[in-house]
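The freezer alarm interrupted the setup, so I double-checked each line after restarting. Inputs confirmed:
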Amino acid sequence: MISLWRAAHWGYRALFVAIFVALLFLRLLPLGSGAGRLPGPDLLLCLTLAWVMRRPDYLPVWLIAGVVLVEDLILMRPPGLWTALVVMVSEFIRSRVALTRELNFVVEWLLVSGLMVAMLLAYRLVFAMALLPQLPLGFALVQLVWSVLAYPVVVAASRLVLDLHKPATGETDDYGRRL
Amino acid sequence: MARTKTTGPEEYTRPLRRLLVVLLVAVLLGLFLLWRIDSPRVERFRSALVDAVVPNMEWALVPVTKAAGMAEDFQSYTRIHEQNQELKRELQKMIAWKEAARQLGEQNARLLDLNKVRLDPKLTWVTGQVLADSGSPFRQSVLLNVGARDGLRDGWATMDGLGFVGRISGLGERTSRVILVTDTNSRVPVTVQPSGQRALLSGDNSSMPILEFIEDADEVAPGDRVVTSGDGGVLPAGLLVGQVVRDTDRRLRVVLSADYQRLEFLRVLRSHELDPILDAGGLIAPPLLPSAPDPEVDAEGEAAAPPVAGGGDVGEEGSGDAEDGTVAEGGGG
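Predicted 3D structure, all chains:
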């Protein structure tokens, strides 16, 4: 039983990396993301937040940092900045795991939306402070709206397909401690 | 919340963990600052990473791209009849054009011969296949499967069969990144034909880049051809870029000749030897003539420099971008 639990941990971590590679692969396909195309949701962000909200023990902070940093580098973003923001937000959620466990989904969705807006603002603020040319605001807002809309879908998919849910009362971890 | 007080190792690991997370965030922000300060070095690292990762995906990227292309082609079969009609009409027009082009070609050859013009033998090209695009709606670039081992250099111009596409910015051993003219960081000095007006083509993430800093906007009419001017010494002159149009808010934009919907094979023009970019603030410039450093001549040269570089706009714009350390100008190295 214990070994199974541990296997589940690593299984979900491997799954996270696999989903990341698949998403990156899809985005890199040279299939007309031509200029002027509106951006889609940032699915990796939705996935990270949804999973940290549910099972913070599945996504250790080093895994999040590593994955997002690689994404930063390959997608030509300034390296490190977005990663730092994602790490900070995931830590914010992680440290409130006792609170988020009690939230119903609508409140959780609001919280996540708020966090996404805050991330976007912080990102643009740092861009302004570093005197970097700003990304077009309209595009960023469209992406934000898409991400907010995609979040419930990602949660539902994680729940139904991957069987990822908040620990029920009385569930125990591999050391027999209550979650 | 009815948890018992934590026991055992957690008592110690929790503050330690918090410290490590703070350290991690600090390191990440430090990396961002490092990139901001010393962009070329970090961009070289990025190129090396992309070089190591993306070609390994090629076995999967290429078939999926082809399959998607086939699916798209298959959809177009449904309206094959009207396409056929359209093609016949176009073909008739083209025959007339072909005849005109042949005559012009002969005439041009005769004139070149009369003038004893020799074309630059360095203007040969390397053809590369598009491996991947930028993957981000905020960056307009593509990744080619040719790189430093094929003799590519930063700054070289890239065309598809029809027109100018962009230039190399970021070079790996096996891959190179082409920053497209639609990217927000792209500034290309151009000439508008037939009036010969100099202007700057600046990308704004839309499919039609804006024509800026035109000397006399009245001389430019929609439908004029736009070619690269070669100012700044980075790009060769005379590459076809596109046609002028006026958009709804009466700004002049350029419809690009290159087929941006389907960038598949790109040719990279071997141009002159460019100075390698070693620092973030420098300009990309042709090698200076090895002249005796006479202070008087130097001062004169500096004073005269801005008007030579296309009314100063080109020079200023270029240096501004380089100082930004953006991917376009300072990147790669």
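Quick read of the result. Helices of chain A lie at 2-28, 43-54, 61-74, 81-95, 97-100, 105-129, 137-160.
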